[in-house]
Amino acid sequence: MFDALTDRLSGVFEGLTGKGALSEKDVSSALREIRVALLEADVALDVVKKFIEEIKPKAVGESVIRSVKPGQQVIKIVNDGLVEMLGGNEDAKGLRIDNIPAVIMMAGLQGSGKTTTTGKLARRLKTQERKKVLIASLDVYRPAAMQQLKILAEQVGVDALPIVEGQLPADIAKRAVNAAKLGGYDVVILDTAGRTTLDEQMMSEAARVAEISNPAETILVADALTGQDAVETARRFNERLKLTGLILTRMDGDGRGGAALSMRAVTGLPIKFLGTGEKSDGLEVFDAHRIAGRILGQGDVVSLVEKAAAEMDEEKTKRMAEKMAKGVFDLDDLAEQFKQMERMGGLGGLMGMMPGAKKAKQAMDAQGLDDRVMKRQHGIIMSMTAKERAKPALLNASRKKRIAAGAGVHVSEVNKVLKMHQQMAGMMKKMGKGGMKQMAKAMGA
Ligand code: GDP
Known about the structure:
Order of helices and strands: HHHHEHEHEHEHEHEHEEHHHHHHHHH
Largest sheet: 8 strands, mixed
Membrane topology: Peripheral membrane protein
Structural class: alpha/beta
CATH topology of the largest domain: Rossmann fold
CATH class of the largest domain: Alpha Beta
InterPro entries: AAA+_ATPase, P-loop_NTPase, Signal_recog_part_SRP54_M_sf, Signal_recog_particl_SRP54_hlx, Signal_recog_particle_SRP54_M, SRP, SRP/SRP_N, SRP54
Radius of gyration: 28 Å
Distance between the termini: 45 Å
Organism: Hirschia litorea
Helix content: 55-70%
Bound molecules: guanosine-5'-diphosphate
Strand content: 5-15%
Protein name: Signal recognition particle protein
Pfam families: SRP54, SRP54_N, SRP_SPB
Number of domains: 3
Shape: elongated
């Protein structure tokens, strides 16, 4: 599916993991190669740019996980970026069929694989979701298309709406919905007529069908082999039809696959399925993690890094808990908390487990501590010497001035960090051993 891209990337990754330490130059040149590989795979330029921009600071500024190589960490970062580009976890899987009968409208250019995909979906809904399915062809221009759908229905064992000559697409849609209601169908799939190019008549006809049938899903079927044209088709259809998702066909071909990678980012629409063959079972649920894994071919590395990162967080949490039990919470600990929070995209591991966490979070919110502020505060702490971090009492006016200059902030910002540290240290102390017990329990110890 993405063979050429996978080959290119595996070369880049070999170079990265072959080295023990990575310089900024190593990472930059690897990212340059990844950029070229994606462009060669026909991924849209804007999408590639955004992807590289997003992963670069992470790859360059990666925090060190001792048990894995830096190159492996970069692979994980590239993987996560790719998953994000493909829609991450947020996509609803499968089709929305809450209200019965649910209408699924299929749109797309002629030859994109619309009719074949209609058959595939019908089969899937019937065999895997035990739905009663009715399919209807709205292609009044090509009697052969209507026949094709009828034969498909027989093959996959669902009902097709009887063909009535001379009806308009909108009338057929109405008849299909009525028949579905009367016949107790769960789902009715409307296979609309396509043209070989985007034209106004096709669009307005499809819009009319949508108006009449009020689809739960309006799916664009696009041929992945047509590359950037498929992306443009999706964009144009979406302007007129309020699409709810995409299905990319011919993913079994040896095309460059870039369309599939750009689609989501360009249109903002979820890719729901991939067509992977001419037969009615050639349909695959789209899963961003699985596709990223397939493209990178580095599944083992990714899970290794995930595991190591989780272990590291746990180890640090334990170490900090031990310190806290003794009533110690220095600026290094605060810096670590900032970092953990950034990694976890929210309240840090340690704090999340503690009874006082809510209060601490409130204190942070009260000071307007969002991610950006947190990064700045982390920067301030990093401008201190190790001695100062371990013993904040050392921080007199001249030291504060030096730190502020180093971090490029006003002295008042340094004071803010110190105040926050004091508040948190006080809170941690209060929790003392009682907090420890709670935490040990939360960690399953
Ligand atoms: P429509 O005009 O959009 O309805 O397109 P069809 O469903 O008639 O498909 C056009 C051609 O593409 C047919 O020969 C299908 O067998 C083929 N096709 C559809 N989907 C796929 C797919 O996922 N993989 C492959 N290899 N061929 C497909």
